[in-house]
Amino acid sequence: MTDPNRVLIFDTTLRDGEQSPGATMSHTEKLDIAEMLDEMGVDIIEAGFPIASEGDFTAVSEIAKRSRNSAICGLARAQFPDIDRCWEAVKHARRPRIHTFIGTSPLHRAIPNLDMDQMAERIQQTVTHARNLCDDVQWSPMDATRTEHDYLCRVVEIAIRCGARTINIPDTVGYTAPQESAKLIRMLIERVPGADEVIFSTHCHNDLGMATANSLAAVEGGARQIECTINGLGERAGNTALEEVVMALKVRHDIMPFTTGIDTTKIMALSRRVSQASGFVVQPNKAVVGKNAFLHESGIHQDGVLKNVETFEIMKPTDIGLNEANIAMGKHSGRAALRAKLRELGYELGDNQLKDVFVRFKALADRKKEVYDDDLVALVQDAATNT
Ligand code: KIV
Ligand code: ZN
After folding, report:
1. How far apart are CA 14 and CA 277, in angstroms?
2. Relative to the alpha carbon of 144, which ligand is closest?
């Protein structure tokens, strides 16, 4: 990667996203989503956790075989059988990657009951093993944001020395905050020998609703890979949402001069496909891809948008591949919006006719949450026959 401001997008919808309780996807759905991610320009697709099940192994292998542009990555714990199984699945890809991890915080070190030195030795052995199989190895200290800084520097240095090319810093429980996220990456880049030879990555969870802000702050701190999922799918409150970080970098390029390789016009189709496959409905007011993200109902907003769309829209619906109308007709809508909407439906009304239809429209909107195109046509026809 030559451009120092290019940020790699690592999508983990099919691994961390699918880990969300109830979000299990079928084999065909996974292949379909992987193909869409590849076409969208995602740099790395984490396709699954090959040792977790036969189904995961088959899906990762098949995605690896079909991959065209994206690197295909599989997850493996810091154990030789996990790493071997992962390699067996990803090796078919044009650009295979092994991602191996271990929990490094005091709470996580207690689980396998390893002391600091024993864990350091395990990291050295497993990263070396992965690197003997695959050129592209990513290593993660799970719960990095709650790991002692001195120890984090020590183990990151070991992983780099053993050949990891990407060092991913997970905020596993969504605990960090933007200032801290930036500082942590900056600290690692400054203190760890060899840090300038690898790419630092950020992997945030959204438990406090800060995943997007934390990921962008990490980029400010020097990270050049963001791990994320479509619709922010993921365990508990989810992961960083791909559509949010990518659109934030696009819309606020003036203050965050970083680029990605994502074709943003494919965002909406992927959001819908992932929602359908996972069964996770996207909340209507979800940033970027929610049903209401580009809809205006209040009279003042509708009037503004009709005169100059930039008054209330910071990005174009077409930027994410959405070609639908952005005006929702409801009780807060004004006369200008009604006139524009009727014009769109093929009705050009005189002032008196519009006044009449507007009164009927307001009465209906008081009874109904949303007034649809068919309702408006009925109102116009009714007004024509009953005046
Ligand atoms: O959240 C996390 O720590 C993870 C790791 C496996 C990278 O998903
Ligand atoms: Zn995670």
Report:
1. 11
2. 1
| Residues whose beta carbon lies within 6 Å of some atom of ligand 1 | 16, 101, 140, 142, 170, 172, 203, 205
Burial class (CB in 10 A: 0-12, 13-18, 19+), 12: buried
Cβ atoms of 113 and 69 within 8 Å: the answer is no
Letter string b/e over residues 134-149, b meaning 16 or more CB atoms within 10 A of that residue's CB: bebbbbbbbbbbbbee
Q: Give the residue ranges of the annotated binding site for Mn(2+).
A: 16, 203, 205, 239
**Closest atom of ligand 1 relative to the 168 alpha carbon:** 7
Residue 371: both structure tokens together: 């007034």
pTM value?
0.91
In this structure, what are the phi and psi dihedrals at residue 294, rounded to the nearest 5 degrees? -120, 15
C-alpha 317/C-alpha 196 separation (Å) is: 39
**What are the tokens at 83?**
């790493």
Label residue 194 left, alpha or beta by phi (over 0 means left) and psi (-120 to 50 means alpha). Answer: left
Interatomic CA distance for residues 346 and 173, integer angstroms: 53
Q: Model confidence over 253-311: pLDDT tens digits?
A: 999 999 999 999 999 999 999 999 999 999 999 999 999 999 888 888 888 888 888 88
What is the Å distance from ligand 1's center to 217 Cα? Answer: 18
Round to whole Å and give the CA distance between 368 and 174: 40
Distance CA 192, CA 153 (A): 6
Instruction: Produce one character per residue of 231-263: b if its CB has 16 or more CB atoms within 10 Å, e if not.
Output: bbbbbeebbbbbbbbbbbbbeeeeebebebebe
The complex's ipTM works out to: 0.99
